[in-house]
Amino acid sequence: MSHELKHSLVAVDSGTLQLVKDTPLFDLLKPLQEEILLDDRCIAGTTHLPDQSCLEELKPGDWLIMEREDNPWDEHAILLRDSQRRKCGYIPANENVIFARLMDAGKLLKAKVVEKDVREGKSRRPKNKHWYKIRVEVYLVDF
């Protein structure tokens, strides 16, 4: 009988084991990953988007990428992007300082859509016919 060895343990140093496999490091750490709920917020700037298609497609349970942005109007700006990397809005400027500090220190944050409300005719851009109120939960991804 031939058994293929899928994983092997290799001693790295005293007491430390390394799992060796053709797997990216992130996948190896995934079982150790913990998502810590920090807070919930409504997305800002949805009425200013030139293209609201990303907002139309968002639904509760969707994850958004949180990304620091060099922004002349907000030194702590945090941009929210969908899985296709389309701009969905921002963490509000008056609520983003702590999140920005965490991200600047190398921490990974992400947001999960928990609620979406659409209203007709409330957008500031004539092209946009809707106003989107989208509430997200902000999580710290800890390893």
Explain what this protein looks like in three dimensions.
By secondary structure, the chain is mainly β. It has one domain: Alpha-Beta Plaits, CATH 3.30.70.2330. Helices cover 13% and strands 42% of the residues. A six-stranded antiparallel β-sheet has the order 3-8-7-4-5-6, covered by helices on one side. Strands 1-2 form a two-stranded antiparallel sheet. The two termini are 39 Å apart.
Descriptive key words:
globular, disordered N terminus, mainly beta, Alpha-Beta Plaits, 3 helices, 8 strands, two-stranded antiparallel ribbon
Secondary structure layout:
Blueprint: E1 8-13, E2 16-20, H1 25-29, E3 34-42, H2 53-57, E4 63-68, E5 78-81, E6 87-90, H3 97-104, E7 108-120, E8 130-142
Antiparallel strand pairs: 1-2, 3-8, 4-5, 4-7, 5-6, 7-8
